[in-house]
Amino acid sequence: MGRDHGFCYFVALLPYQKTMKFIRSLLRPALLAYGITSLLFMLSVLESSSFFFTDWSAQILRNTVKSDVVVVQFDFKTLRELGDSEKRYTHHAELLKKLLDAGARRVFMDFDVFEYSDAMPDQNLYDSLQAIGFDRVLIPLSWSNQRDSSGQEAADSSPIAPFPEDILVSTKLVLGSDARVRQVFPLDMVGPNPVPTAVAKLSEAHEFPEAGRDIDFSIHPSSFQRLSYVDVLKGHFDASVVKNKIVIAGPTASNVAVEAPVPIYRSMPSSLVHAFAYQSIENGPTYTVPVWALMLISLLTAILLQGVFFRIGWRPGLFVMLALVPSIFILSLLAKQHLRLTIDIVPLLCVTILCFVSTMLAKLNQQSIRLWLQKGELDEKEAKITELVNHSIDAIVTFDSRGALDLINPAAENMFGYEAADFPNLKIKSLIPDLSSQVEDRMTVEERTSGATQEMEGRAKNGRTFPVDVSLSRSEVNERILYTAIIRDITERKRQEARLRYQATHDALTGLPNRSLLARRMETALAFNKSIAVLMIDLNGFKDVNDTLGHDVGDLVLRTVSKQLLTTMPKNTVVARIGGDEFAAFVPIKTEAEEVIELARKLLESLEDPLAVRGIEVQLGMSVGIAVSPDHADEPSKLLQCADLAMIQAKQSASGYQVFDSSMNKMTIRRLRIAGKLKSAIASNKLEMHYQPKVELAEGSLAGVEALVRWNDPDLGAIYPDEFIKLAETSGLVRPLTISTMDMSLAQHANWWRQGIRVSIAVNLSAHMIQDPELPQIILDSLRKYDVDPTFLTLELTESAIMSDPKRALGVANEVSMLGITLAVDDFGTGYSSLAYLKDLPVEELKIDKSFVLDLSGGSEGFHIINSIITLGHGLGLKIVAEGVEDRETFTILHEAGCDLAQGYWISQPIVGNQLRDWIKNWNPFELEQPVQLRSVE
Questions:
Q1: Which residues pair with 193 in a beta bridge?
Q2: Strand (E) positions, 524-573?
Q3: Higher pLDDT residue, 361 or 909?
Q4: Under a CB-based contact definition with an 8 Å cutoff, are residues 810 and 836 in contact?
Q5: Is beta strand 611-613 parallel, antiparallel or unpaired with respect to 793-798?
Q6: What confidence score (pLDDT) does residue 664 get?
Q7: Angle of CA points 922, 927, 930, to nearest 5°
Q8: Cα angle: 483, vertex 487, 490; to 5 degrees
């Protein structure tokens, strides 16, 4: 049997009088709550609350809808440009013509067009509208309540001209009881006659009840497209915006607009209110719960809630009431959004709250309430204290002045390992020995009653000691002095602090000291021993391990290397990992630096054999930089800097190890100065381009030029490209440098073209740029900028640039080649090209490195090498370019060997752009009586 059935069965067994008494006690509070709610509703006391919830709902449900309304605003811009012009009738007519010509479905002019009505303006407006057409225009009709001298007849301000009645509408907005416009009606009495409202005329295709329709202010104002009156008048608008749309034109500037008080937005121009009203009808019909149905629902709700509240206590009842209030509001929102049903929830909320209050008052009399409040207050305090003590994660112990324990909580039992029965026989010194001595000194305890925390040592039952934080306070209860200690076990905190200290001073991967700990230990060593040596160690080839085998294998390699370093280095050495694949170590030395050099050799020998990691043999190298105090520096940071410079030098020279030399500082300073000036030089166009001609060996004619970047700084003097291009690659300036040189080269090419010199131009590319996926777009932008034919541009790539990442280089090279640009391999023969990749690349030229060309005059070996390269290149369908031609003999040998093109100082040194025409005139490779007629000059 269910709970409700059992309750009914119990009621049926009661005597009749008790049953009726029970029913009256159940219904009396419900009827009281319903009666008060009904009275408040009839007196309209709840009306303001109803409006509040209605507006709140509209704000919550506010959304943007797809509207076919366009508002043309007579705004401040229009007022500023047109002013209060006497030509307003003409302007209105022009505006209507513009809108109707643009395809507006209907236009409502929300202006007081007949406010100062007389024959001439009215007739002018009538004539204009007659020419345009009346069928798509609505004009407001105004009415004055003036009386004549007899006081009998109202003065009609309707237009003098015979405007059709079906275009004249009322614009009157009716205020609700809260002095705000909330509804729109189909008809309005203008004078003695009913006139349709503007919204009714605009919405003729929709149902419009005589009782009016609520305006839906949950529509966001951004739903309506807006145009400025003056923009439309001048034709500065998109005609598609108003095509097949309802257009409402009216003033919105505050000093000319008719502002209507509305919900949510406080006030709004009349034209915008009409837009809201029209869209509300356009969105479809809405439904409102009738008053009789609302009151019946309130009565049933009161009876139902009364039964619930009567059977539960005040706390659950309060929870039910607080849960019902937002639930009713949410349900009303859902009904309005999905069912378009408006429910006045204020009577339901009022009856819910009154039911709860009346039921609680009925269940308790005044005396019961006072007793209940007092008991509840005491119970609550006692429960809070008990809850606080028993569930505290800290141990709480109370003891007297003799140290005897008075009260303990479960956390103290768990912390010290005692059972509750053990504590009456214990004193505080058994738990915290140091605290006992403080209790004996009353002055000390009184000074510490502020709750300050002290770090002490706790002792468990099994003798284990552990660190604790203790907060001690003193109090007097019934002339008895008691001490309360709040104790927290801080073992884990101490462990975490130790772990954090270790992590702050050691490398997480290898367990070696980090740079910070290394520097501190170096300071200590320097304080006791003035002579220490610092070794900066960098692994060669480690990047390839990470790239090919993965970072997990790389981590294992670093751990293996760190162990090998510790094994190789002396016991009094401190080895640290600085970061990445860099390590550092320092060792006290007793004699000269030779012993450190010997140590460096041992380190190099330790990596001669491959490392075995996960069954893979990894071959690494090492570069070691050495700095010694006090010869090179006497501070840790400077010693590390010197060793780092020496290590960089060792890596560049491939010598394995290098002892610091003062000249390295000068080189570093110069590099820093160059790096600092390079960005400014690129941005301010301080770089210059020189051009070295390339000629065809068969005919001696000019085939093209190679663009070479030069930099002559006022402070640093001439800076060679090999020096600043490397800095650009390492400092992130290679892209702006490439763009700058490309622009200068193509600008010069365009200038030559205007002079009649048709010559191709070759530009060198950095290894970094051939891996840049944006390179094709950079080149294309520059070609378009200077209107250069891509077929006249050659890009020269080094073998090392291609082979650093062949797949990516192949992809970028193919994209560049598709633009029509020629690709050439520069310095061929000095790198480690794969012929397979060379075959796949869209290359058209091979440039033989000048080191082979310079050896031609030395014997047959150089000739055989060049001859092999020419044969290989021609076999692949490539042109062969020789650079470094320094004399006529070399020129002749290359010509006989079948080389296609050549360049070098014998032909021409690099020249500036305006010198090329003179060079062409004077160039005579075969020493003829007249210079060779070059094909490149038109």
A1: 190
A2: 532-540
A3: 909
A4: no
A5: unpaired
A6: 61
A7: 60
A8: 160
